[in-house]
Specification:
Elements lengths: L1 H5 L3 E6 L1 H4 L8 H16 L3 E6 L2 H9 L8 H24 L5 E6 L1 H5 L1 H16 L3 E6 L13 H12 L3 E6 L20 E3 L3 H6 L12 H11 L5 E6 L5 H6 L6 E4 L7 H7 L6 E5 L1 H8 L10 E6 L6 E5 L5 E6 L4 H7 L7 H5 L13 E3 L1
Parallel strand pairs: 1-2, 1-5, 2-4, 3-4, 5-7, 6-8, 9-11
Antiparallel strand pairs: 7-8, 9-10, 11-12, 12-13
Length: 372
């Protein structure tokens, strides 16, 4: 367990709202200063670190004198706009004490679903790391809508982990780690020291919601670990209040819960496809097409598509389902939904006669397809 985090050269460190804002009472400057000090020592040891920090909305609530988290999107956005100012200033001040520059990076789902913006974000973060800058990343709450928001910063942290192909994701929370049952209800609950990321039983024991300050709970952390494992990254869930937690983890000490990635990293392009939280449409495949994709590693041809749902254009990401409706892959489609409906169940040799032209013989080329 211990060596997996100790050997990590690139770490994404996520801290939640409850920790950052001391249970909603305002920014916990002392806690942020402690994390900055620890990260400075990790940087001196040659490790590259990125922070994903919640707290903008919670800090905004405190500054505005609101005692409850609002539900209306425009009120959440207003709170985020107010709180983000203090959050960025606090991190900048704390890291400057150690001679480290910081960069505020605000992301939305749209930044990661658009291929060009995805690559731009990846390039920017890698450049910042190469310059010795600590990126402090948050969701751009001031512009998100219901349709595009990540929903919680655990998910965002996992996506950033995949984006830069980090070795490990460290999620600091207000709990010691993941328990095999709810410790608030079961005094006999035991801490899970290590488990495979993505194990189905983890989601069952992690059910429940987070605090009234943040949106996440232990379930979102388990799902984040599952997502981070797609790029081969291990996830460590531990208490952010544990003294010197980051330094001790980097030294190989056993703390919290380690969720171990079971598969080697997949190519960054296919990782990007697999990590789309939203797809433009769905293709229902026949059994032969499923076999061609899953077992034989082939491209998807129009003849293997039984039905099309949704409206999408050429180059958008679509979901591929087996005959029972289970998602098996995602990929960049070569034809629009209208065109796909005209050529489905037909061999590739007939595409030109049906459409009057042919762009590609495949509906989705294997290089643009990610099996899930």
């Amino acid at each position: 367990m211990s060596e997996k985090i100790a050997r990590a050269a690139v770490l994404v460190i996520k801290v939640g709202s409850t920790l950052v804002t001391n249970h909603g009472r305002g920014l916990d400057v002392e806690a942020i200063a402690r994390w900055a000090s620890q990260i400075a020592r990790l940087r001196s040891a040659g490790k590259q670190c990125l922070m994903v920090s919640s707290g903008a909305i919670a800090e905004g609530l405190q500054r505005l004198g609101w005692t409850r988290r609002p539900r209306a999107m425009h009120e959440l956005q207003a709170a985020a706009a107010v709180g983000q100012m203090g959050l960025a200033q606090c991190y900048e001040t704390c890291f400057r004490e150690h001679g480290l520059a910081t960069a505020q990076v605000l992301l939305t789902h749209a930044d990661l679903v658009d291929r060009r913006r995805y690559l731009n974000a990846r390039s920017t973060l890698r450049t910042l790391l190469a310059l010795g800058v600590i990126p402090v990343i948050n969701e751009n709450d001031t512009v998100v809508t219901d349709e595009i928001q990540f929903g919680d910063n655990d998910t965002l942290a996992a996506l950033v982990t995949n984006l830069i192909e980090a070795d490990a994701l460290v999620i600091l929370t207000d709990q010691p780690g993941l328990y095999d049952s709810d410790p608030r209800r079961n005094p006999e609950a035991k801490l899970v020291a290590e488990a495979p990321a993505g194990a189905s039983w983890l989601e069952a024991v992690a059910g429940g919601t987070g605090s009234g300050i943040g949106k996440g709970g232990m379930l979102t952390k388990v799902l984040a670990a599952k997502r981070a494992a797609r790029s081969g990254a291990h996830t460590l869930i531990a208490s952010g209040r544990e003294p010197e937690v980051l330094v001790r983890l980097a030294a190989g000490e056993r703390i919290g819960t380690l969720l171990v990635a079971q598969t080697p990293p997949i190519a960054a392009r296919k990782q990007w496809l697999a990590d789309h939280l939203q797809v433009a449409g769905r293709l229902r495949l026949d059994a032969g097409a499923v076999q061609a994709l899953v077992r034989d590693g082939k491209s998807l041809l129009p003849i293997g598509v039984a039905a099309v749902s949704g409206e999408f254009g050429r180059g958008e990401v679509v979901c591929c389902e087996d005959p029972d409706g289970r998602e098996i892959a995602r990929g960049l489609v070569n034809y629009s939904s209208a065109e796909t409906r005209r050529i489905l169940r037909r061999p590739s040799s007939e595409i030109e006669s049906v459409l009057g032209y042919v762009d590609e013989p495949e509906l989705i080329h294997r290089d643009n397809l990610a099996l899930l």
